Amino acid sequence: MAADDAIRSVTIRPGFSGGRDPSYRSIIGEGLLGEVRARTNEILGGRRRTFVLVDDALDASMGATVCSSSEGEPASIFSWRATEANKSPEQLVRVLQAMASARLDRSSVVIALGGGLTGDVAGFAAAVYQRGIPWVNCPTTLLSMVDAAIGGKTGVNLETPGSAPLKNFVGAIHHPVLVVSDVTTLRSLPDRQFRAGLAECVKHTMIAVDWGAPELPDWMRANLSAVLQRETPALTELISRNISLKAAVVEADEHEQELGPGGGRMALNLGHTFAHAFETLSGVMVSGLSAPIQHGEAVALGLIAAARCSAALGLVDTPAADDLTSLVTLCGLPVSVKGLPPDDQVIARMMQDKKARTGILRLILPCGRGRVQVVDNAPPAAVRAGLAAIRG
Ligand SMILES: NC(=O)c1ccc[n+]([C@@H]2O[C@H](COP(=O)([O-])OP(=O)(O)OC[C@H]3O[C@@H](n4cnc5c(N)ncnc54)[C@H](O)[C@@H]3O)[C@@H](O)[C@H]2O)c1
Question: What pTM does this model have?
Answer without folding.
Answer: 0.95
